[in-house]
Amino acid sequence: MKKNVLIKGILLLIVVALLAIGFTGCISTYPPYPTTGTVYLVVSGSYYYDLYMDYNQYFNDKIQGTYVINNVSIGNHFFEAVDYWGWTFGYDGFYKYITAGANYVYLYPY
Fold first, then answer.
1. Which secondary structure element, helix H or strand E, spans residue 66, and what is its range?
2. Domain for residue 3, yes or no?
3. How many domains does one find in the chain?
4. What is the CATH number of the domain that holds 60?
5. How far apart are CA 106 and CA 21, in angstroms?
6. Residue-wise pLDDT tens digits, 60-106
7. Which positions ≥6 away from 110 have C-beta within 8 Å?
8. 77 is in which domain, residue-wise?
9. Which DSSP string corresponds to 10-48?
């Protein structure tokens, strides 16, 4: 009788352990891969500029300095600085590949 109870107890323990492993699944201990980065727009110039990323305006009438755009998706993006009075008074723009983490974009709209 005691042997039968011991075997049933061990089998029950094995079944519970397998069910626990099965219900939890494979849990990753690593954080997910980042999909965004932070862009620091460093603008040099003596006037006021509108700052764009992918033809969308992010900052308006800004003087020289550093401006931050958060949560930018990884990949190629087009950045530009346009003088407040128009692109004929000052313009700079180019493509840059954005990676996860900090990315510096230097704009010289002369």
1. strand 65-73
2. no
3. 1
4. 2.60.40
5. 52
6. 999 999 999 999 999 999 999 999 998 889 999 999 999 999 999 99
7. 45, 90, 92
8. 36-107
9. HHHHHHHHHHHHHHH-----SPPPP-EEEEEEEE--SS-
